[in-house]
Amino acid sequence: MKQSLPVTLAHAGLDLASDVAPLMKRLQGDNEPFVLATVVRTISVTAAKAGAKAVVDRDGSIVAGWIGGGCARAAVVRAAKAAFDDGETRLISIQPGELLAELGVEPGDEREGVQFARNMCPSQGTMDIFIEPVLPRPNLVVYGASPVAVALALQARTIGFDIAVCAPPEDLEAFPAAVNRIGGFDGGIQSNGETYIVVSTQGRGDLAALEETFKVPARHIGFVGSRRKLEALKAKLRDKGGAPADLDRVKGPAGLDLGAITPEEIALSILAELLMLRRKNQRRHAEPEV
Questions:
Q1: Rounded to a whole number, what is the distance in angstroms from the first to the last CA of the chain?
Q2: Alpha helix (H) ranges present in 56-142?
Q3: Could you tell me whether strands 126-134 and 180-183 are parallel, antiparallel, or unpaired per DSSP bridges?
Q4: Contact 16, 53 (CB under 8 A)
Q5: What is the DSSP secondary structure assignment for residue 261, as one 8-state letter?
Q6: What are the strands of the beta sheet with 34-43, ordered from one edge?
Q7: Is the pLDDT of residue 66 over 80?
Q8: What does the pLDDT look like over 87-145, one tens digit per residue?
Q9: Packing angle between helix 263-278 and helix 147-155, nearest 10 degrees?
Q10: How many CA within 13 A on the CB side of residue 150?
Q11: Three-state secondary-structure class, residue 84
Q12: Which parts of the chain fold into alpha helices (H)?
């Protein structure tokens, strides 16, 4: 099938792109998740042209912008929902069935990072659409005001975490003002992003802090202290009626075994572990060529 030359971004309808900018700014400010779908290439007749953008919410609704009609919408929504799940960008190419056949691919196939979908519309054009998830920043909640807790609060923002610290009110001055400082351990932590918890009370309210962590839907709970100490604390919580499933959520000692000694080094080892957990399944590792 003969098709006209691709429309490039230089000829894009940039007015469509500008429609989504205010909403994107607000969603990012509110730490709300969304997916940005951008048409990066079109061939032949298509409703939307390169540069057109749309914002997709977690329910799969296009809440701003436009990337064409039903021919593109279903494929974009499927890809957006997948992007919410794994946090990965993806490129989808919507093409007529006969072009897919010429390429030797089926709808739903992926080749060299491109996912293919069939264009069922009479126009029979081709659209390449880039799917970019914009997810909330992860939240690190630190319980306690130990030197390790302070080091965590200082270091974690540099790798993209929002920080909340729960500690006795008289100890909060140890933390920088930019940190979300909460007096006590029952702060009612809420976040749109993934939540990670590190308990670094080190003898000052260990049990109270651990009990509060069970109320938070955290992806990971780490305990700063020896394995023996953590097991002793778990035994006390078990005697108080703590649920086995909650107790199993607490992992310790927190951090990767990097040989850390100082509070700053221990904090670094903990953040390395959290980063490993956060990025799990978000990178595709290709086998090295020999």
A1: 39
A2: 70-86, 97-103
A3: unpaired
A4: yes
A5: -
A6: 62-65, 53-56, 34-43, 126-134, 90-95, 114-118, 110-111
A7: yes
A8: 889 999 999 888 999 999 998 899 888 999 888 777 778 999 999 999 888 899 999 99
A9: 50
A10: 12
A11: helix
A12: 14-29, 70-86, 97-103, 147-155, 206-213, 227-239, 244-249, 263-278
Could you say which DSSP state residue 5 is in? P
Listed residue (105, 119, 115, 108) closest to 73, CA to CA: 119
Measured CA to CA, the distance from residue 289 to residue 93 in angstroms comes to 28
Q: With contact defined as beta carbons under 8 Å apart, do 117 and 100 qualify?
A: no
> Residue 287 — φ and ψ, nearest 5°?
-70, 135
**Per the structure block, which two tokens stand in for 70?**
């039903």
196 bridge partner residues: 140, 220
Written as six digits, the tokens of 68 are: 């064409």
- C-alpha distance from residue 187 to each of 123, 149, 183, 233, 234 (Å): 56, 17, 7, 22, 22
User: Residue 104: CB partners within 8 Å, gap ≥ 6?
Assistant: none
